[in-house]
Design goal:
This protein has 323 residues and is mainly β. 6% of the residues lie in helices and 43% in strands. It folds into three domains: 29-120, Immunoglobulin-like (Sandwich); 128-229, Immunoglobulin-like; 250-322, Macroglobulin (MG2) domain (Immunoglobulin-like), CATH 2.60.40. The strands form six sheets. Strands 1, 3, 4, 6, 7 and 8 form a six-stranded mixed β-sheet that branches. Strands 10, 11, 13, 15, 16 and 17 form a six-stranded mixed β-sheet that branches. The chain has a four-stranded antiparallel β-sheet with strand order 21-20-23-24, with no helix packed on it. A hairpin with a 6-residue loop joins strand 15 and strand 16 (215-217). This is Putative secreted protein (Por secretion system target).
Length: 323
């Protein structure tokens, strides 16, 4: 029995030595931009270089594997010649769409890091979304709108995640990149959106959040011109335009066929517009006399606004019902 115990103790001691000899190396790859946009990817900036690094070990060998859509990846891992230091510099010209890993040794142990990928560029040409409220605007040209006084227009960068600090303009800037004191800069606005309530030509210059040194100008072709005013199409239904004094007679109201508007002192009206509740202009007339009938028989039943502009520039806005 004693002999058996001695052998058991001996084998237990050998087992402990084997456990101690087992490797516990867990190398990982780190990089300034690794994981910033995607957990296991490096996305390049315009500088096109990125430094990969691992923890301190005895020796290093870096490998790369070409990306493919296939799973599992059939491409071989290839040892990078001369890549035997703790760091590895990769660049967008030669290393884009490759996987990387590092094999390290310490004493008698060898281990490999999990793979990471070098993806494409953090880039997107700047573009601007323009949001207008139905019934409050009319497009008069490419990139130009007449907008009802009191309404608002929202401008947004199409790529808000990509871009960081913005410089917003209300007219054509004198300098690109922006220069402090430029009267076209909207001071204090640096976010990825801007709400305009006054006339101007709007656009932006922005630097990418992921790559702070990479900045882009929207370009004058992407600017949008807004002309705020009291236009004939402006509708009370949206609530953005405050009415003028509504002491203009509109009769009969409701009506089935003929509608009269009148204020004898006005004599005539330079413009008459009828707008439905969606803001769509359904009738227009110039040089209307106050005692002339307006035929609305072709309009579908519902609520309408009639906007009248007198010869001296006064605006009247009234509601009527077509039965």
């Amino acid at each position: 029995m004693k002999t058996k115990l001695i052998f058991l103790a001996f084998y237990a001691f050998i087992g402990m030595l084997n456990i101690k000899a087992q490797c516990s190396l867990t190398p990982t790859i780190t990089s300034p931009r690794l994981g910033v946009m995607f957990p296991d990817k490096v996305v390049f900036c315009n500088t096109e270089t990125e430094v990969l690094s691992t923890q301190a070990y005895g020796t290093y060998q870096w490998y790369k594997q070409e990306w493919t859509w296939q799973t599992p990846n059939p491409n071989p891992w290839v040892a990078i010649p001369g890549a035997t230091s703790q760091t590895l510099t990769i660049d967008g010209a030669n290393d884009m769409l490759y996987y990387f890993k590092v094999e390290v040794t310490l004493n008698d142990c060898t281990a490999e890091s999990p793979a990471i990928m070098a993806d494409g560029y953090a880039y997107g040409l700047p573009s601007m979304l323009t949001t207008l409220t139905p019934g409050t605007y009319q497009q008069i040209d490419a990139g130009e709108y007449n907008v009802c006084e009191g309404a608002s227009v929202t401008f947004e960068n199409t790529f808000p995640v990509l871009y960081g600090v913005h410089t917003w303009y209300k007219c054509t800037p004198g300098n690109i990149p922006p220069v402090a004191g430029d009267p076209c800069i909207i001071n204090g606005v640096v976010g990825d959106s801007y709400v305009a309530t006054t006339s101007g030509e709007y656009g932006f210059y922005a630097c990418t959040e992921y790559c702070p040194d990479q900045c882009e100008f929207l370009g004058l072709g992407g600017f949008v011109k807004l002309n705020f005013g009291i236009w004939s199409f402006c509708s009370l239904g949206t609530g953005e335009t405050a009415p003028k004094k509504n002491d203009l007679s509109v009769y009969p109201n409701p009506t089935t066929q003929l509608l009269y508007i009148g204020k004898k002192s006005d004599k005539s009206y330079a413009d008459i517009s009828i707008v439905d509740v969606s803001g769509r202009v359904v009738f227009q007339k110039s040089n209307h006399q106050y005692n002339e009938a307006i035929d609305v028989s072709r309009l579908t039943a519902g609520n309408y606004f009639i906007i009248s502009k007198s010869s001296d520039g006064r605006i009247y806005k009234n509601k009527f019902i077509k039965k």
